[in-house]
Design brief:
Helix content: under 10%
Number of strands: 11
Distance between the termini: 37 Å
Largest sheet: 7 strands, mixed
Length: 130
């Protein structure tokens, strides 16, 4: 499994960024793509997940309607649209394959997410200045 992230960078607070994740080599059908982040001095946490099977989504509580995850299956790319960014959103963002979807996207993207990770991208830096 390979996942390639792109779209990170430096933005001012209140602005937007769109991250892209291009997965390849995924042989199973019951998986989701998740975005996770690691802020300086903090552990990795789930941001958003989307099922490749049925498009169901789940978001971290801190998102509060600011982010949207979209699966562009035609281009085999998953996007994370991030709006109204704040300095607290600064960190390294990773995309991952999470499976199986039979447990539900909320579980794949919930407290036990570590148990369901099948592969990771290299991560991409997002920095939000105040």
């Amino acid at each position: 499994v390979q996942l390639v992230e792109s779209g990170g960078g430096l933005v001012e607070a209140g602005r937007s960024l769109r991250l892209s994740c291009a997965p390849s080599g995924v042989t199973r059908k019951d998986y989701a793509i998740g975005w996770f982040r690691e802020a300086p001095g903090k552990g990795r946490e789930p941001v958003a997940c989307i099922s490749d099977e049925d498009g169901s989504t789940h978001y971290g509580e801190f998102v509060k309607g600011r982010f949207t995850i979209v699966n562009d299956s035609a281009n085999k790319t998953v996007y994370l649209q991030m709006n109204t960014l704040s300095p607290e959103d600064t960190g390294v963002y990773y995309c991952a394959v999470q499976s199986p979807t039979s447990v539900g996207v909320s579980v794949l993207c919930g407290r036990s997410w570590r148990s369901y990770s099948d592969g990771w991208g290299q991560g991409i830096q997002v920095t939000v200045s105040s």
